Amino acid sequence: QVQLVESGGGLVQVGGSLRLSCAASGRTFSSYNMAWFRQTPGKEREFVAAIRWLGDMPYYADSVKGRFAISRDNAKNTGYLQMSGLKSEDTAVYYCALDSRNEKSGFVKSDSTQYDYWGQGTQVTVSS
Description:
Strands 2, 4, 5, 6, 9, 10 and 11 form a 7-stranded mixed sheet that branches. The chain has a 4-stranded antiparallel sheet with strand order 1-3-8-7, with no helix packed on it. 0% of the residues lie in helices and 45% in strands. It starts with a strand and ends with a strand. By secondary structure, it is mostly beta strands.
């Protein structure tokens, strides 16, 4: 079992920045690829970014490329999403996810069905 807890969400103005954290417990976080997704009411969960278990090969959705940065600190069992240049369309609930069915996988994935553990989400609201 894995528990994922997101934090760091909140209200920010357009152009502002936030850093989301995802604290993991229960299994060896450092062996699994992780990702961030987001969701707004009435829409499907949308891929944001993913990173390999080693902390390399970051992969981003086109909508956030150049503005968001995904990282992880395996010693702290924590993943991060640094968000800058926020836009109103970034408003959503942000979820972190872990791909625990593929230990030390060489490939990060953008398909939400490939991730089997999810946090409860943290709300990010970007106001103008």
